[in-house]
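Bench notes, afternoon.
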Amino acid sequence: MYNSDTSIHSDFLCEPLAAYSSCCKQRALFEDELISTSPDDIRVIELFAGVGGFRVGLERASSLFKTIWSNQWEPSTKRQDASSIYCERFGYLGHSNVDINLVDVADIPNADLLVGGFPCQDYSVATTLKNSGGIEGKKGVLWWQIHRILSTHRTPPKYLMLENVDRLLGSPASQRGRDFAIILASLSDLGYMVEWRVINAADYGMPQRRRRTYMFAYKNDSNIARSFTNGKNWLLQDGFMAGAFKVKNSDCVPSTFIIKGSLSEISTSFNKGKSLSPFKNSGVMIEREVHTVTIEPNYSGPFVTLGDLLLPDSDVPDEFFIQDEDVPKWQYAKGRKSEKRINKITGYEYNYSEGAMAFPDSIEKPSRTIITGEGGASPSRFKHVILTESGKYRRLTPIELERLNMFPDNHTLGASNMRRAFLMGNALVTGIVERLGIELLNRLSYE
């Protein structure tokens, strides 16, 4: 299941990533040649690429997936570690390490499939989309960069594969589901039919309990869209998501409604004053008509646990083992608390409480969700800690974190251990993308 190839160019190991990133950026800016493809290839654009999770999953699904252009830019930092690693793993050709806001759409080549895990921020529209001037939320504007590419590209891609956090379906708290309604309506207005599913990777045998919203969109004139049956059958058995990730039969009737109004009107009034989002964990939208239902996964294959992926203790550097004198600090960080605390700024005293976290983490189940703060030796309630056969506690290594996202071993080698953990906390489970890629190939065989 995992590729443990650790062959790395020696110059990458010796060269600081910041300098390597600058080189990568300039090479991309002056590169005129396109990645060569054949007529049977599926040409892919990868946005917000990180260290290439979509690319890893798609290329594992089939060599027919060819990423011809990618963009990765981390704002407010000189170090572009993710972009540097992306260049090292996949090459400079077709890679852009430039703020996506500054990319000319005319410079993006024609592609069949656009993929990306766009930032999970505020997607509201204040007044108008012109020049993105009406967008609220500093990083939420990045959704509108996808919109800009789709709406102005000379040949917009026929298929989209997008990923975001599961709470997207219910945000913001003041208008539950508004952000998702804006995304769906804007895609519908651009001529796309959209499916979505909240998928917990562990429900389908993968090694991490990581819940994310996956969207797959396709042009209304595609064969996939033309084969639409009805909302219930599509969501339970006939649709794209149902083909990739089987669900249990259900007698539930999907909720159906139409997203009405301009994008600005949706931003202002959608679901206003209501406490629940109308979007369930599975759904499909065509011509702004939404069909949505709560589904349960149906999987009977093998399951991978955290313990299946652990390195032998002999291969783990000493820095990842917790000293005996520090164990009580970890026990406190992960333990149940009910105590008085004082705000250091205001001096205000308040009652603080929180529940207990598992200590140590079970190695007989899939892991908890890994987060960006997984790295570093300081005690934390959210970092994973396991108890080894020798009776020692230790943290997870970068390789083990990579395996939990189903990346090849040492995919992030070259960055510091802290940054490698951060990059995996930001990544996705590539096995999900692989299965979506296989399903797309199956559907395209009927095109």
